[in-house]
Amino acid sequence: MGRLVVVSNRVPSSSDRHHPAGGLAVALQDALRRGESLWFGWSGKQVAEEEKHSRTVSQEQVENVTYATIDLTHSEFDGFYQKYSNGILWPLCHYRAGLMDFIRRDREIYLDVNKFYARKLRDLLRPDDIIWVHDYHLFPFAQALRNLGVKNKIGFFLHIPFPPWSLMKSLPSAVSLLKNMQAYDVIGLQTEDDARNMNDGFMQCGFGPRAQAFPIGIDPDSFARQAEAGEHDAEVHRLKASLRGRPLVIGVDRLDYSKGLPERFLGYEAFLKRFPEHKGKVMYLQITPVSRGNVADYKALKRDLDETAGRINGMYGDFDWTPIRYLTQSVPRHLLAGFYRLADAALVTPLRDGMNLVAKEFVAAQKEHNPGSLILSRFAGAAAEMEDALLVNPHDPEEISDALHRALIMPKAERLARGKKLRESVWRVTASSWARDFLEELSKDRPE
Q1: Is 112 part of the annotated catalytic residue set?
Q2: Coiled coil where (predicted)?
Q3: pTM for this structure?
């Protein structure tokens, strides 16, 4: 195999290039280490419109990986990234078509940026490179490369869900988008359901099935070591001391309407109302870093969460106990690992998620001899692999409350049995096995 060329909307920042802390950079570590590699995408910088035609690719070499980045203009960032990728495709793929605000000009900018990326990457390619494209920002990218004469093998992986055709067809030019995707040699999604949805869309548009499931994982050995080391961190000791012997329930999600956070708060409220014996005797820590905070839908979501948390704390709290500890700043990854290890239960209740690696990180962080309980939404991609979690429908507050009560009173023998099976699932499907399986499939010879 030639070089691995990774293409994503955003390339890791300079600090993450040397010490990957999460996301795609961590997932791809093993694959990138195997030989000379190139990672291409947006720099994260915006330039003035008058600089549009003078932009060049910047490159930085870190060990065996070349990071190649290109800037976007302000109008490209707005139309391609903010409005079309995150204002149209993101809600649609998370089954929230009602949040789409379609403007044809944004779609044109989305296609133009994909063509621009393709032109800039073409000049960096070698004939034997294998190209791996990631996520919804780049659905038409392979077709843009093919139109420039690129013959290399090109694979695509979608990290978020893919909706059924009955919903997908609400996107103007949905057929054109799926037609462009025929230029990929291999298309991967997180779950069999998502692959089935995409293949049904292909067939409805007159194409053959192309999508396959390649579930993603974490590096569980590394995360378990981080969690174990985190037990000795001063901040983890501070959290433990503040609990005063109470069990800890933890939730970790970036601010997004797909994560089911308002529903989760209502489920916790139902728990306090229906099981008053837990009042004052449990601590719920919700860590929710703000993302896309300048977008109206996210501002409204944050306002809703702030108000709901305040109402619950005001109604159920006491002078020495706050029902919800609600943080909107990010917490370093090594601290999160220590917090997970300390927790007695995790609430992972998205309304829709491609996979959700928080669920897997929580399991990897647990003490084998005394694990906490995972409460997991049935609509997270991880649920297909983690049936021994306490599975819930996040739209039902009482179901969440029942699961919380069960998690906190669960006999140790049951926790051990569930924890053992969950650990097996997390160690069976890892970031390394995901990358290996996808690249093996992409490397296969196919008929012309």
Answers
A1: no
A2: none
A3: 0.95
